[in-house]
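Q: How would the structure tokens look for this protein?
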Amino acid sequence: MTPKNLICLWYEGGAVDAANFYAKTFQNSSVGTVMHAPGDYPDGKQGDVLTVEFTVLGIPCLGLNGGPVFKHSEAFSFQIATDDQAETDRLWNAIVGNGGQESECGWCKDRWGLSWQITPRALTEGMADPDRAVAKRVFDAMMTMKKIDIAKIEAARRG
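A: Here is the predicted structure in token form.
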């Protein structure tokens, strides 16, 4: 049964490939029902894959092969909290190494244009430190990074 609420993500024909990539990259992720178009539509023909249900880290999603009309933007992203540098590196490298693109401050894009924030808990905790001078040092350190380096974040927190 389809969840009552899910995130619909528009793809230019790669929804199944994206869903399979997410399922193998992120824990608690899977691919569900693939629906083939019952008739022709603006960007496809009867029988083409129209949608795929999938879950990313427990979040239900629907990939729609809608064509090139609408593109992903940074206005939507998945923010993934990581526990250590190994997890941060594994996820970052999986996304960027599969045709993705690095950005700034822990952000990257997958090869389908979807934005991801690979955010170590050490960064989030450091920026929430009640000592605002500590939080600023952590923030300033983050602003110099693409992939987050936890050792540098922790060094900034210590001063």
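The CA atoms of residues 24 and 143 lie 30 Å apart.

The chain has a mean pLDDT of 97.

Upvote if useful.
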